[in-house]
C-alpha cells in the first residue's frame, strides 16, 4: 500500500454482537473525517505482525466520523480474525486503507434480493439500510447456525425494513430453512441478487442461479476467503514481463507473485487468496489457469486478466503487462 493511501485510526469501541462475532468502531487517529464510502465497501486492515485482512464496512455510509467492521472469530483463521479478537482492544491504533468497493449496489435495479450467510451479513446489512433509505424494492434473507450466532438482530429488529428480513437457522425447524431453488424460482426476471457469506453457501446460491439461467449482470457477490487450489498436475511455466522482456520461471510449488518477488519484481497484494482483486494483472498472451474467486466466469473466459497470487498458466508462458 502506498503511504498516501494509508489511514491511521483508533479503535474507540469493541463490542460483542453475537457468539464469536465482535464489531470494532474505528475513528481517525486525530479525530479527522474519514473518506466517504458506499454500501458494499470494505477496508484493508493492517494487523500486528504483518497480516492484511479485508473487512466490510457495516455502518451508515452517511457517517464520515467512523467506520464499523464486524469480525468473526474463525477457528480456521490464518491469523487475522484471531488477532482482531485477542489482541485488538479499545485504544489501539491501526493502519487501514481507504474504502474500496468491489461489491456495489447496481444503479436503478428494479428489485433486489439480499442473501447473507453468517458474517457475510456485514455488507448485506449496509445494502439493506441503503435500499430502505432510497425507497427501493428489496427483501433480505439471513442464514446463520443459531440465534446465538446471529449478529445485528436487534439492529435489524429496530429498523424500518424489519418486515422484509427473514431469518433462517441451521438448528431450527426444517420448515424455516432457506430453500434456495424455490426462492430464486419465485424471483421476478428483473431482480438483482446479492450474496455474501461462507464459500459453500455462496457457491450453492450462485450455482443454483446460473442453473436457472440468471444472467451474470444480475449476480453480485463477494467472497471473504478461499482455500488455495493446488493440483498434483501443477507444473512449471514461465511469465514474461512485457515492459522489459524479462522471463521468470514459476516452479510447481510457487505462486506467480512469489516467483516474481524472488526475481526482484514486486506485485501489490493483499488477501493472497484470490478474493480481493488487489493483484489483478493484464494478460497480453497465453492462457491463464484461473483459480480465483474474484473474477466472474465471463471475465475468466476472456483470459485477458488474472490474479497472480493464486492462478497459474495452462500455456507454457504468460506474457504479462508488467
From TrEMBL:
PROSITE patterns: 2FE2S_FER_1 (PS00197), 2FE2S_FER_2 (PS51085), FAD_FR (PS51384). Signal peptide: none annotated. It comes from the Bacteria. It is an enzyme of class 1 (oxidoreductase). SUPFAM superfamilies: 2Fe-2S ferredoxin-like, Ferredoxin reductase-like, C-terminal NADP-linked domain, Riboflavin synthase domain-like. The keyword Calcium does not apply. The keyword Flavoprotein applies. Its EC number is 1.14.12.7. Pfam families: Fer2 (PF00111). InterPro entries: 2Fe-2S_ferredoxin-like_sf (IPR036010), 2Fe-2S_ferredoxin-type (IPR001041), 2Fe2S_fd_BS (IPR006058), Beta-grasp_dom_sf (IPR012675), FAD-bd_FR_type (IPR017927), FNR_nucleotide-bd (IPR039261), MRET (IPR050415), Riboflavin_synthase-like_b-brl (IPR017938). Keywords: 2Fe-2S, Dioxygenase, Flavoprotein, Iron, Iron-sulfur, Metal-binding, Oxidoreductase. Residues 237-322 form the 2Fe-2S ferredoxin-type domain. Residues 4-106 form the FAD-binding FR-type domain. GO terms for molecular function: 2 iron, 2 sulfur cluster binding; metal ion binding; phthalate 4,5-dioxygenase activity. This is Phthalate 4,5-dioxygenase oxygenase reductase subunit. It comes from Paraburkholderia sediminicola. The gene is pht2_2.
